[in-house]
Amino acid sequence: MRSAIGARLRGTYWATLLGREMVAELGGAERIIREAPVHSVESFGDGALYLQLTPEPEPITTPAMQTGLLALEQFLRPVLVPLPLYWATRAAEA
After folding, report:
1. How far is CA 90 from the centre of its chain?
2. Which pLDDT tens digit goes with each residue over 50-67?
3. Strands 40-43 and 49-52: what pairing?
4. Which ranges in the chain belong to alpha helices (H)?
């Protein structure tokens, strides 16, 4: 499956690690640092980046996590497994 779709994320989470290929596909580290809707971005070596959604872990049911995961899902869409977007689907149903 990986050979068919390449390096892809299965979803969005409080902490996300982007490999070098995903960073490039999203427009590079500078763009991600500047535009990703997250609390912090850290270099993880060899071109990889670590994204942290909020300062501290929060229950997935909090408004900050709900809106944050939706925004992050939209931002990461090019590197997500090509399935319906989970948080966008939940927001549309609400």
Report:
1. 17
2. 999 999 999 988 988 989
3. antiparallel
4. 2-5, 20-25, 29-35, 63-76, 86-93
